[in-house]
Amino acid sequence: MNFIKEKILNSKNIRTLVQVISFIAFTGLFTLTYGSLKSIYVCTIEGNFSLVTCMPQLILVSVVFLLTATLGRFFCGWMCAFGTLMDFLHFISYKITGKSIIVNYKLDQALKLLKYIVLIGSIIFIWTLGVNLFGGSNPWDVFGTYTSFGQFPEFSQYIKSNWLGVGILVIVVLGGLFIERFFCRYLCPLGAIFSILSKLRIIKIKKAENNCGKCSHCSKSCSMGININPKEVVTSGECINCFKCINACPRENLRIMLGTKHSKKIAVVIAILVVSASGIAYYAATYIDSSQATDLSKVHIAELTEQGGGTFTDGTYEGTGSGFKGTTTVSVTVKNGYIKNIETISTGDDMPYYNRAFNHVAEQIISTQNVSIDAMTGATFSSNGIMEAVANALGQEYENNNSQLERGHGGLGYGMDNGKS
Ligand code: SF4
Ligand code: SF4
């Protein structure tokens, strides 16, 4: 029984299991959280913010941020798919080479500032000024495209239109092979926010000074390069609650403090609860988002109808287009010469992004009776696929009028694509 407890049911194995489950169940959570924050910001600065339309984004962001501020970065250490990729890369390279590069402490500290520059740069240039920095998908989107279930875009074509995102992802993967949590430490803008938020957390790692052998096993094992040895309490916002330092100490000198009490078991239970709550928020946001879908039968085309007969031939047609992850197939119904209804038959895209894009695109197409409209913020690939499929169903040549169509889909979007993806 003790063997099972120590060798199988230890915090390391439980964390790995939770990471694997999260990777499968919540692959897009990290990009959706960041994208949701972006949507709230863009809506606010454009004066479009409303509690009802931004509800899905608000739920996700507030749950994840609140849990991180109070309990620390379980999101990063236990459930983020990109963080899990970083852990996996380091595990593989360590197994092969038996080495892990320990970055000089001062250099590591300086490089960690880079993620704040990435965050501030993104807010100013991409979110506020609408600079189309990536041309195609950002590295997160590229990663998400090939790790989520569904159809994958043709690789050479994908690289061509997303070369910067793919290039950065290659650098991140190479970095992750040699330096543990390379992206999380130095480049992740969401990690920068979490790092600030988690400073006030109530869960902290504490060391009993009098029993410390000064071997520095704790510091050497830290995923995030925190120099734990000289400290009594780890207060750094870089800590991702992975508990590797605790497992590394041969004297069992480190403890997980919950206020004034300490317990590893309770901390593991809290980790699982945090992951479950964030997962529920993820699916709740997705559900609310899709239930806010416009009833297409109520879309107003009275003015257009008054102008005379529609130009399309009556009937129900099927068409296909290239979405974010392969083919999107729709059915289009034309009545009295007007597009009356659009239904999705199948798509390879991730549903949260697709639903959001579909609500916007289908409503716009029906109300304007025009197939080429503006894409949805943060869901340009999906939008493009729907427009192309509708055009295909109606026997039209599809013309891509969206200059930003090669941008990544980055999160639950809101509003028209105005260059702030
Ligand atoms: S720092 Fe960023 S990439 Fe790393 S685990 Fe946290 S959210 Fe994910
Ligand atoms: S201090 Fe410990 S729990 Fe925090 S990141 Fe480093 S190894 Fe993980």
Give keywords:
7 strands, binds iron/sulfur cluster, 421 residues, alpha+beta, 19 helices, disordered C terminus, Sufe protein. Chain: A
What's the topology here?
Elements: H1 2-8, H2 11-25, H3 29-46, H4 55-71, H5 74-79, H6 81-97, H7 105-112, H8 114-128, H9 139-147, H10 155-161, H11 163-178, H12 182-186, H13 189-197, E1 203-207, H14 217-221, E2 233-234, H15 244-248, E3 254-258, E4 261-262, H16 264-291, H17 302-306, E5 315-323, E6 326-335, E7 338-346, H18 351-368, H19 380-393
Antiparallel strand pairs: 1-2, 1-3, 3-4, 5-6, 6-7
Helix pairs in contact: 2-16, 3-4, 4-16, 6-11, 8-13, 9-11, 16-18, 18-19
**Small ligands present:** iron/sulfur cluster
**Helical segment count:** 19
Q: Low-confidence parts lasting 5 or more residues at pLDDT below 50?
A: 403-421
Multimeric organization: single chain
Rg, alpha carbons: 24 Å
Beta strand %: 5-15%
Structural class by secondary-structure content: alpha+beta
Total domain count: 2
Give the overall average pLDDT: 82
Shape: elongated
Q: Biggest sheet, in brief? A: 4 strands, antiparallel
Instruction: Compute the separation of the termini in Å.
Output: 53 Å
Order of helices and strands: HHHHHHHHHHHHHEHEHEEHHEEEHH
- Which bin fits the share of residues in helices? 40-55%
Main sheet strand line-up = 2-1-3-4
Beta strand count: 7
Give a verbal description of the structure.
- The protein is an alpha+beta fold.
- It folds into two domains: 2-133 and 179-291, no CATH class; 296-393, Sufe protein. Chain: A (Alpha-Beta Complex).
- 53% of the residues lie in helices and 10% in strands.
- It is built from 19 helices and seven strands.
- It has a four-stranded antiparallel sheet, covered by helices on one side.
- Helix 2 packs parallel to helix 16, helix 3 packs across helix 4 and helix 8 (114-128) packs across helix 13 (189-197).
- The longest helix has 28 residues, at 264-291.
- 42% of the residues are buried.
- The protein binds iron/sulfur cluster (2 copies).
- One iron/sulfur cluster binds at residues 205, 221-224, 226, 228, 234, 239-245.
